[in-house]
Amino acid sequence: MTRAPDVTREQRGQTKRMSVRLQCPGYPEDTLRSLADRLPCRDTQLETLLQLMGQPDQYSYPSIFIYGHRATGKSHVVLSVMKDLELPHASVDCVECVSSGLLFHQVLSAFFGPDAAALLPRCPSLSDFVRLYKQMSSNSPATQTRYIILDRAERLRDMDFSLLPALLRLQELVSDNVTVILLSEIVWEKFRPNTGCFEPLLFHFPDYSKAELVQILSWDHHPSYTPELYASYINILLGVFFSVCRDLRELRHLAVLNFSKFCEPLEKGEAKESDIHKLWKNIEPHLQRAMQTVYLREVSSVQWEQQQMDEEAATTLRVLSAHAHIELPYYSKFLLIAAYLASFNPARTDRRFFLKSHGKIRKTNFLKKHEKTSNHLLGPKPFPLDRMMAIFYSVVDSRVAPTASIFSQISSLVTLQLLSQVGHDDQLDSPKYKCSVSLDFILAISRTVGFDVVKYLYDFL
Amino acid sequence: MSKRRSAALTEAQRVSLAQTLLRERLCHQKLPDRPVGLDSQYKHLLELLRRTAVHGESNSVLIVGPRGSGKTMLLGCVLRELMSLKEVQKNVLLVELNGLLQTDDKIALKEITRQLHLENVVGDKVFGSFAENLAFLLEALKKGDKSSSRPVLFVLDEFDLFAHHKNQTLLYNLLDVSQSAQTPVAVLGLTCRLDVLELLEKRVKSRFSHRQIHLFSSISFAQYVDVVRAQLSLPPDFPDPKFSEEWNHSVTKLCEEKSVEEILKRHFNASKDFRSLHSLLFLAVSRVSVSRSTLCEADLLEASRLISADSKANVLHGLSILELCLIIAMKHLNDTYDGEPFNFQMVHNEFKKFIQRKSHSIHKFEKPVVMKAFEHLLQLELVRPVDSGVCKVQREYQLMRLMLEHGQVMEALQRYPQCPTDVKQWALSAFG
């Protein structure tokens, strides 16, 4: 971050000019300026936030709700402001708080020291918290606005029903200069309780535009290459990923992972830095592959890096990532196929598929009676065990006796969650099942036993 | 804050002083001198409480009004006036409970004990029942001489929440005391639920006096503007009279402005309560700085824009193209199947049809990539599972509903940066 690329230089000049305008009495000016420099593309948000907060000794609005997509700098901006301006604040990530007691504990110890938090009883209620807070704040009244920052505030909805409404009007309840800042990805409408509550001020952090993403991503360019090269690399990367993902953190991770591959032709001397087209041709398929693997977390970053080392591994990895294969016994495979057929074919078509002499099919009638939507859209239907066994006997090529070993394979398929039992376990005489594997999976399975499953599916007739 | 003479105040100090004052007012930290438009209610309540405080009559009353209509403010003003009477000040005890904080009767009783300063009297005594405990508390308040004992005012904020406590023990006992000629108590309930009496059990209801004070503001628009002016004006005792005169003048002029009136009218029509007005004014006031030391039209315009922004549209603006396409597909499914729930498979199918037939700007994506986009929408709660309890269903086949209106989708599409034309056309076409 020492040398900024040229692309951003102009932009940073702008932020400089902005920060001169960004004058907030009560705060040291040079801290504000360095703050504005460290938060690229968030100038207006920073300004509005500071305006809302006002001077440190002034009252601030009881609760502020900040929402915006993941990685748009919500917590980063708020926390940097708090830390750099040295304001009294308690920042709590609601994911960490399995009980409201933990939340109270963190807030009290941040404001009044660990001794105060130790005064909380064992399972503190909201009442205890407010009482202690009042007691403490009467001993040391707030000279500056105290801020409680609750990250991932959507978790508060799952906690005690009165917690969220009470926090929103905490200023009134404890009669202290305290502001609660809630941060969330989810819009405020989803938070409002049934009978309403104190409405916080809503404040939106917009997503970064493409140009802004380029600017920010170019900040961490590699020292041994020119910033221009890195910027053009970022442009190529965004060309592939921008339509799918706008999450800055994810894009940044992908950028770091794939940069060495991008530089490979340069190191081998096959291309120069100016041959953008050549470099693009080299990296593009690679990025496409990354989208199908690393982006989906089918391979870990370490595996992906290893794969870049040797191309040999690439092919094996591809197979590995495509669909996790489970090796099943021979009859289990057929049982699964039978279950799949029973789940996705209507029962009345069984005659047609599995009976040797099914009589004359009135073809027109059969085809015209197409359901409005195919079963592959609606999902698997439950079926009785008998039906599955009947289909199983007819699809498996050899004669199989209905032994205990066959039935035990059914229950092991249930344990593997390839089948799922519908209804209660106490239905002993005719249990019902559902097949819960995808079409791709069943196609792969049937290929291993040389069975053409598509021919037997009503949807693909 | 400087305490120097007004002449010595710099511009910056003047502005920040004014801001401090207004912010305090708009954050509801300061009670107004007199509640606006609630004169009859004010008198009624004051009279009731005076009878308890001075004459020792027990009473119970409910103050009902929508959120932000000034219930707490009204009560605060009444109590302030009541407590200014000398004989009341010494004598009356005030117990404030809040349904949000005292979530069950045990906690509430502990809080009552604490607020009556009776912790050491109670000590480690063990009580048989709740009523016994409460009776003991009230007994302890009785004076040695005469039959008179100190009147207690019980304020129950969020009264409806107390009705959800087990057996409504607290309410039953409080109202029972208020009915029988024991200690003089006044039970004041504050609630935003009109149907609150329906929540009470029969035995509790019959002990309630059925006195209700309703707060439905009936102010006209002209009065509303007057309130705005009053809220923004600086008081006469502001340290710098010249500045406050200028400020007040500018506020008066601002309220006459056409566009400002339009904004206020819009807010007035949406809701008459003052709390939403305060948040609007707060935003406007916070924009005042040293370089622009008066409140101007642009501040209010910007504040109104911030307040009335549709947050879902804001969220849609930040979605990726793929996610937006999925939303459009869901919209089409909603149109064709008349709002029936859908699953991922259907959405994917709809999306695939679009890719095959009409799209030239968007390429094919692998199904897992689409699934990831879909799950992001689920995480943002733009789509919602019909019944979340069923976990046995595969993720692709779980039934979902779109939580967006038709209009919201179309509006988001208009505002979307660099939206490909074929996607727009697809969204506009009647059937996928």
Structural commentary:
The complex is a heterodimer of chains A (461) and B (432). By secondary structure, chain A is α/β, with parallel strands linked by helices. Chain A has 3 domains: 7-204, 3-Layer(aba) Sandwich (Rossmann fold); 210-322, no CATH class; 330-460, no CATH class. Chain A contains 22 helices and 8 strands. Chain A has helices at residues 6-21, 29-38, 43-53, 74-84, 100-112, 114-118, 126-139, 163-168, 170-174, 210-217, 227-241, 248-268, 276-292, 301-309, 311-322, 330-344, 350-354, 363-368, 375-378, 385-395, 404-415, 439-448; strands spanning 63-68, 89-93, 146-151, 178-184, 201-205, 383-384, 419-422, 432-435. In chain A, helix 11 crosses helix 13 (276-292) and helix 12 packs across helix 13. Chain A is flat and about 90 Å long. The model of chain A is unreliable at 1-20 (pLDDT under 50). Chain B has 432 residues and is of the alpha/beta class. Chain B has 3 domains: 2-25 and 220-308, no CATH class; 39-214, Rossmann fold (3-Layer(aba) Sandwich), CATH 3.40.50; 313-431, Arc Repressor Mutant, subunit A. In chain B, 55% of the residues lie in helices and 8% in strands. Chain B is built from 22 helices and 7 strands. In chain B, the strands form 2 sheets. Chain B has a 5-stranded parallel beta sheet, sandwiched between helices. A two-stranded antiparallel sheet of chain B has the order 6-7. The longest helix of chain B is centred in the N-terminal third of the chain and has 17 residues, at 39-55. The radius of gyration of chain B is 30 Å and the shape is flat. The termini of chain B are far apart. Chains A and B meet through helix 7, helix 9, strand 5 and helix 19 of A and helix 1, helix 5, helix 15, helix 17 and helix 19 of B.
